[in-house]
Input
Amino acid sequence: MNKTIKSGVREMLFRMIPKFEEKQQEKEALFNQKQDCLRVVLDFIKNLKNVAGVDDIVKTIEKLTALEQKDRIRTQNQYLDEIASMTEVSIATLKRRKKEGVVNEGVWNTPGKKRPHKPTVSNLDSFDKDAIRNKINEYYIVRKQVPTLRTLLVELKESIGFTGCRKTLRHLLLSNGYEFKRNKNERSLLIERYDIAAWRHRFLRTIALKRRERKSIIYLDETNIHKSYKPKKSWQGPSTSGAIENVSSGKRYIIVHAGSEKGPVPNSLLIFSTKSKMADYHHDIDAVNFNKWLREKLIPNLNEPRVMDNPTEPIYEADELLKQNGYEVLRLPPYYCDLNAIELVWSLAKRKVASINIALPAVELDKLIKESFESITPQEWKKNTDHIIHIENKYKERDRILENNLESFIINIGDIDSSGSNESFHMEMLDSDYDSE
Output
């Protein structure tokens, strides 16, 4: 890891270089004087032809001259190497300091620390991510075009106010299950990962079957609200500054809830506070707390034979706990929170909290959050679940259109044999590929 060199040390290294150059120039002048003297002595001795031992003296002087030439420093790298050996810094660092000193004109500043910072795009909620996915689907299904990062970036800036760059958009797509792969006819396409597409297909087929069997479906999930949660925008005028947004997020409240088209599961709302500073609030809900909520709040209040679960943390003990009590768990495919009706409930409740949370004391926020959830009527829950069914049908229709319009694509599978070689297989997106085991 590179170490930061403070301004005083950098300035010292910069000043050492010209000083060393001056010393070398003085040594060079002295070297030339010595060479001149040796040449005079050598010429004089060579003229003494009849004196015994002259040849030995001549050879000694010539060796001395050669040694002087060998120790002579001629290039910049040679004297920089001398400085590097004394200061224990590299020649490249010395060259950078020399260039820096010329550019900054004698003004030296220590670089600031590399502190953690929020991602460029930190304000994207689940609805914005769904909008990005829908925009990609629109390219394939409606426009019959291949989306690229350049075209997507322009449209997302207009539609959802996306503030990131192309690199940020690329990371966002990769983190949400998309890949840029080469298809059969050698054109690169932005496509969804095959395993996630298969998971979604199985999920849609299973949940449709449960609805035909008239099984009740309970949606559950968790979310968070900060003490400083307020609207991002408000009407402001010359004498009205609007809602003041806190610099610090403050205490975080974790909410776990469950409900169906008939309304919330009675007494299933769990609210607790945490002072965790981690960006991902899911770390605040571990297996112990989640299973305790299942045993004490959810299962005792359920009269439904089916549960649709979407915990983001790997609490697979919860599956066994629910199965032991006669309930079935159906997990959402990754990145498809828009198929969970409770996401719409979060949005309703948070809007109500934000509209009232103006200079509200922290002791009253817990009560406000609880009242906001309790104020959501069974009719609103029913409206949300109906909207989810509409989204499910749109995904089914989209998948049928994609199967008719997209050719088979190549999936590279590595390390499939003992030799470790990679092979490419042509796999078609057929219904049989999505069958459950």
Q: What stands out?
A: Confidence is low (pLDDT under 50) at residues 184-188, 407-437. The domain at 214-233+243-396 is CATH 3.30.420.10 (Nucleotidyltransferase; domain 5). The chain has 13 helices and ten strands. The chain has three domains: 7-104, 126-194, 214-233+243-396.
